[in-house]
Structures are given as structure tokens and as C-alpha cells.
Predict the 3D structure of the following.
Amino acid sequence: MHLQTESENYKQYYEIVGEQKSIWTISPKSPTYFQEMERYERVLKYLPGRGGTVVDLGCGDGYLSYLIAQRNYRVISVDIAATRLQKLKEKREEQSIKLLQADIKRTGLADRTVDTVVCSEVLEHIPDYEEVLQEAYRILKPGGQFIVTVPYKENLKTIICPYCHRAFHPDGHVHRFDRENLAASLHRTGFRVLRQKTFRNKFLVHVQYHLKLKYGWFLRAADALLCALMPEFTWYLLIVARKNPGKFV
């Protein structure tokens, strides 16, 4: 009897997710669009200005990869699910994007060959997430930059499946991150943390959801103001780190 490996289970799960949701087709007034664009723009803000090659680990449907490529970076979009990469396939001809279906813990990319690695809203899904950090470190050039976003101080409350009676998180999250524990993991891997930012005010999320406000300059400005006033009352944590040239894995 064949028992599915962890990688096979993840692949099956994300193939299903890829068929069910996509930012390419949702309304700019939807809460999901607001949620995704808010973190995409934060990641774009911290990309290094010198260009080069960016690897998007766990790229999902590839919208962030597409936005990065529009800024004249060469992009390698990595995801385990073919259905998610397919959504980017039609767009990649317009941009410098390479698609790679692979486990993000073992991409197969060469050592020390990329300038920047992005990993946005991925680590919270991976039980052994430090292997992803190690893979990012391995493929980055010395001094290369790693940009990570994760849910900030998330309540990992689980629910019970009515069919199998197992407890699970509705979004498949298995880790709760804060500034200290993620920074410590990055440090153990060999990264030097350059900056940490929290964003997406929780109060504004509810306002946008009920009023169906279109994402734009007003919401961005309101979020920046509220996050400055209430940095702990936020959904996301962003960390920018640099590969320590003196350590190799």
C-alpha cells in the first residue's frame, strides 16, 4: 500500500486550492483583494533597487511574481502545485518569469545564484519551516536579501472536521509567529535581520469588509496611519534579512 509523503499531501492540497481561488479574477472591492495587495505592495517596497534575479518561494497563483517582473527583475516562480502555476503561465510571456514546479524546501536551484528571495504567507503552512529558510540561504548570493511575510501573532484556534473528527486550522496554518521567534530562526540560519514591520490594521479590515471600499490610496494611507498608532493590532509581519557572507550551509 502506498502511503502519501508529506510533499505529496501538500501538493494535493494546493492543487485543490489553486482550482478554487485566484486574485487574478476577484474584485478590487473584495476583502481578499485588499488583503493580498496590501502585502504585495509592502514586499515590492523592500525589493533592492539594483534589480537582478528574484525567487518567489511558494508563489501561489503568481500575482506577486507578475508585479515583481513588471519592475524589470528576472523572476523564478516556485510552487508545488501545477494548477497555481498555470494561472501565471498565460502572463509570463509578457514578463521575464520562469516557472518551476518544486517543493520549496528543495528547489533544485544552484547554490549562491540569486539576488533576492521572497516568501510571502507561506511559512505558517510548513511544519518544518526552517528548511525553507535554509533553502533560501543556500540559493542566495552572499549579501543577498530575503523578504518574508507571515501572519502576526495569529490565534491558531482549530475547528473539528465533522467527517474525520480531526482538529485543524481553517487556513492550514501550523505556526504562530512574532518578531522574536521568526527573527531567531533567521539568525540561526545565518541571516542578519535588517528591519521588521507590522501592517494591515485589524480595525480597518472590518471597515473595508463591511463598506466594500475599493483598494487604493485612501486605504493605504489609513492603514499606514493606524499601524503607526497601533503597531500590535495588525495582521501581518514583514521581515527583511540579509545573507551573512561569512556563513555557508
Notes: Residues 6-243 form a domain with the Rossmann fold fold (CATH 3.40.50.150). Helices lie at 6-20, 31-45, 63-69, 82-89, 130-139, 179-189, 202-211, 217-229. Strands lie at 53-57, 74-79, 97-101, 114-120, 140-151, 159-160, 167-168, 191-201, 234-243.
